[in-house]
Design goal:
This protein is mainly α. The protein has one domain. Helix 3 packs parallel to helix 5. The protein is elongated.
């Protein structure tokens, strides 16, 4: 699968309606725009930095991440969206803190080349199988390997 762009709709799938309303109401003053698109862009850029840290990885088009890291990205986005302002801590429970910490640990594994991701062209990033063995020897007297 090709790399993807995260949308606000992707994030909303992991938030309840009241949470989304609370984030938007508390996070914006009159005339301000919703900060979610900017948070998404920052997290995507950060994830791409983790990906680039592993020399075995290739980056996809700007603003995209591998689908395998979508849940990781959303966990980070959701946490940062909720912790953006004082008083929002009531929306962060121990499970979400654990998901955020797990997401950061996974990204560290990506950077250390310990977690494979899809190549931008859709191929699985895991190692390509290699076949090795002794080379057959051919001569007039011996036809080893035929």
């Amino acid at each position: 699968m090709s790399w993807i762009t995260i949308t606000t709709g992707d994030v909303q799938t992991r938030l309840t309606g009241p949470e989304m309303d609370a984030f938007r109401t508390a996070a914006t003053a009159f005339g301000q725009v919703d900060p979610l698109p900017e948070i998404i862009a920052q997290v995507v850029d950060e994830i791409r930095g983790y990906i680039a840290a592993c020399s075995e990885n290739r980056l996809g088009a700007a603003g995209t991440i591998p689908p395998r890291l979508l849940a990781t990205a959303i966990n980070i986005i959701r946490y940062r969206y909720a912790t953006r302002l004082p008083g929002m801590s009531s929306l962060i429970d121990p499970l979400r803190v654990a998901e955020y910490n797990d997401a950061l640990r996974l990204l560290q594994q990506v950077a250390a080349c310990d977690f494979s991701i899809e190549d931008p062209d859709g191929r699985d990033g895991s190692a390509t199988p290699m076949v090795s063995g002794r080379a057959p020897q051919f001569s007039r007297q011996q036809q080893d390997g035929i």
